[in-house]
Design a protein that fits this description.
Layout: H1 3-29, H2 37-44, H3 48-51, H4 58-83, H5 90-107, H6 109-116, H7 130-133, H8 135-149, H9 163-173, H10 179-200, H11 211-226
Helix pairs in contact: 1-2, 4-5, 4-6, 5-6, 5-8, 5-10, 5-11, 8-10, 9-10, 10-11
Organism: Streptomyces violascens
InterPro entries: Homeodomain-like_sf (IPR009057), HTH-type_TetR-like_transc_reg (IPR050109), HTH_TetR (IPR001647), MT1864/Rv1816-like_C (IPR025996), Tet_transcr_reg_TetR-rel_C_sf (IPR036271)
Protein name: TetR family transcriptional regulator
Length: about 230
């Protein structure tokens, strides 16, 4: 790459970052439904036609923000798992990951709301968001997998009417895990983000005051529901 091409590439990266930073400010003040390319361009001192060279539409910009948010919370989960000692129990690793996801959400409430809150009218997330969106779930699955292939996991009971669906889910999501565990993992994944959404949206106000130990307890209960045995 020539010096000129390298300078252009760096400039594009910097402008793209500035556009996304300004768009995140709009998310915080106006919400995703009112995100406007023209407003972003105006705040950056750009003409709209110049901004369209980076993001041809509002949906393209939304997609970039959504992928960034999924990648950020996914990285937080992955780093939390990596920091755990190998001797740590699967349940302890699970709880550490859950706490890291919550910490990221509380530090970035508007980005968390973008990916886990209400859908944006008129916007349909493209296929390219699926991989980033799966990162947290894959971390949780990896913890269950390590337990299953290590000291073992205690599969929860599985209702007979759910057996066929459980086998289908296991075949698609984690063929090496018992179907009952896969069902519990999906439920726990949904409950984890439900707990965090309640806190981010203020639903725990006047209900749960000391939220750190409450969340840790809830995360440990989710670990139990999956079949991870807590240390004595």
């Amino acid at each position: 790459m020539s010096t000129v091409q390298g300078a252009r590439a760096r400039a594009r990266i910097e402008v793209t970052a500035a556009i996304k930073d300004e768009a995140r400010k709009q998310l915080a003040t106006e919400g995703a439904t009112k995100l406007s390319l023209r407003a972003v361009a105006r705040e950056l001192g750009m003409v709209s036609s110049a901004l369209y060279r980076y993001f041809p539409s509002r949906d393209d910009l939304l997609t970039a923000l959504i992928i960034d948010a999924y990648d950020a919370v996914g990285e937080a989960a992955e780093q939390a798992l990596a920091k755990q000692r190998k001797a740590a129990s699967p349940a302890a690793r699970w709880t550490a990951v859950c706490r890291a996801v919550r910490a990221w959400a509380l530090a970035h409430p508007h980005e968390f709301t973008l990916i886990y809150g209400s859908s944006v009218p008129g916007y349909t997330a493209p296929q390219e968001t699926v991989g980033p969106a799966a990162r947290v779930g894959l971390v949780l699955v990896s913890i269950a997998r390590d337990a299953h292939h290590g000291k073992g996991i205690a599969p929860p009971p599985l209702a007979v009417p759910l057996r066929a669906e459980a086998e289908r889910m296991a075949a698609e999501l984690a063929p090496d895990l018992p179907p009952a565990v896969v069902v519990a993992l999906v439920a726990a994944w949904a409950q984890l983000f439900g707990l965090i959404l309640f806190e981010v949206f203020g639903q725990f106000r006047r209900v749960v005051e000391d939220r750190d130990p409450f969340f840790t307890h809830a995360a440990e209960q989710l670990a139990r529901s999956v079949g991870l045995v807590l240390p004595a």
